[in-house]
Structures are given as C-alpha cells and as structure tokens.
Amino acid sequence: MLKLSRMTDYAVVALSALWRAAPQQKTAAQLAAETGLPEPSLAKILKTLARAGIVSSRRGVQGGYFLVRETGRSLSAKMIIEAMEGSIALTACIETPVKTECAIAACCPVQGRWSAVNAALCDVLDRVMLADMCTADVTEITERRAAHGG
C-alpha cells in the first residue's frame, strides 16, 4: 500500500490552517487547539517545514509560524511530501543504485520501468497546490488542469 505518514498528513492540515490565517502567525499551541492535532507533533512538523523554507517563524513572546498566502498558491503537494518524507521513490531501484539494493536486478523484467510511473506520480503531485486543497475538490482541479495541458 502506498501511504503517506501521519506526520505528512498533519503537515497538510497545519499548512491549511496557516494558509487560511495568512498573513497572521500561529503558535503550535494555537494550531493544536484549532485543528485537534497533538501539539508536540505540530511543533516538530513546524520546525521541519521551517527548515525546508515552507513556513517562516518569529521567535519570542509574540512569535509563531506563518505562511505567506501567495506561498499556498505555489506550494505543491509534492513539495510538502518531500519536505516531510524525502524524495518520492516508489521502489528501491528509483532511489538507489539497483545493483546495491535489489536482489533480482540482474533478471528483473521491469528494471528501469518504474521511473516512468514515479515521474507520472510526481507530476500529478506537483500540479496540486496547497491553495487548491484548501478551497476546492482536488479531483476537479487535476482534471481541469490536465484538460488544459497544465
């Protein structure tokens, strides 16, 4: 089963809340109260997203995390997933040299073919923006963009 981690799922929820609040900042405690997510997990997620340059933060008593609203229009699902989980690789042979990771590399009939599938998945994830996830039906958006070549 292909499944994102709970932390990535939480990251999208937190980013959605920050996008709706933009340009206002929120602390991890405020986001936890608004979303129902655990504060310790949110604190960890927000630090990861800040290191990736996805959110900005201010320190101090009046501190918190924020997302520039326009960032949500250019922040793709792929960017969020990669910030939280690393590069997207459906199989080990996409991520690492085949000879070192795969016991059947010498006789694999689909060796190198997963790259096209991985690229297609990444392309779709790159077309779905955070703003889209916050405002509309994602299926509708991807179908509309595909119909218009974008």
Number of helices: 10
User: Number of domains in the coordinates?
Assistant: 1
CATH secondary-structure class: Mainly Alpha
Q: Helix- and strand-based class?
A: mainly alpha
Low-confidence spans: pLDDT under 50, at least 5 residues? none
The helix content, as a percent range, equals 55-70%
Mean pLDDT: 85
Shape: elongated
What is the makeup of the main sheet?
2 strands, antiparallel
What is the ordering of alpha helices and beta strands?
HHHEEHHHHHHH
Beta-strand segment tally: 2
Q: Mind telling me the CATH superfamily name?
A: Winged helix-like DNA-binding domain superfamily/Winged helix DNA-binding domain
Relative strand content:
under 5%
Going across the biggest sheet, name each strand in turn. Answer: 1-2
Rg, alpha carbons: 18 Å
Terminal Cα span = 28 Å
- Quote the CATH topology: Arc Repressor Mutant, subunit A
Key descriptive features of the protein:
150 residues, mainly alpha, Arc Repressor Mutant, subunit A, 10 helices, 4% strand, elongated
What can you see in these coordinates?
This protein has a single domain (6-147), classed as Orthogonal Bundle (Arc Repressor Mutant, subunit A). It is 60% helix and 4% strand. The protein has helices at 6-21, 28-35, 39-51, 69-74, 77-85, 92-95, 98-101, 114-127, 130-135, 138-147; strands spanning 56-58, 64-66. It has a two-stranded antiparallel sheet. A hairpin with a 5-residue loop joins β1 and β2 (64-66). The mean pLDDT is 85.
